Amino acid sequence: MGYRSQVAGCFSVDRVSKLDEQGKSYSYYDKAKFKEMVGFIKLSRFYELWNTKPDDESFGWEDGYFVLYGSDWKWYPDYSDVQAWNELWYSMRQVEGISGYFCRVGEESDDIEEHNFGDDPCYEFFHTYSALSFDGNDFLGKRQTDDEEEQGEQASTNQEEKPCGSSVADTTQA
Questions:
Q1: Model pTM score
Q2: Quick check: helix, strand or coil at residue 148?
Q3: What's the average pLDDT block by block, 10 residues per block, for the chain (174 residues)?
Q4: Among residues 75, 68, 59, which one has the least CA distance to residue 5?
């Protein structure tokens, strides 16, 4: 099985603010820059290695964003698909007007890797948080030692106190 990670990555075309006719501010992405980004991704080794299954839903792009996400992945630096992602990440850092975010969360509580670059690093899709996984529900509300102690106390109050060395046989004979 091996060590598994949850992985998230995003590239985005930086948003540009603009005023409409009424003077209200809104933001949009440059569609030509988005086409350039997607074209660059399609020419990458990442796309070549990761786009092998038609039903693969681990990545996609729309509205100025490219998003990668998966859980239960083996994410080792010497794996070719991980190397391809790292190459794409490095290349996208060199493109003006592109931002990126990457996070990998491993099985250990302190194994979190997070990177970002650019002016608009896609925080709205992913965020890390601390969590606790608990598998002890069967124990909650049970107090076996309390029950055993109560039974022991009841048993001792039901018996008469006997002098040291006497037995039940002694009391029946008397």
A1: 0.69
A2: helix
A3: 84 86 85 92 92 77 90 90 94 93 89 90 74 73 66 62 55 52
A4: 75
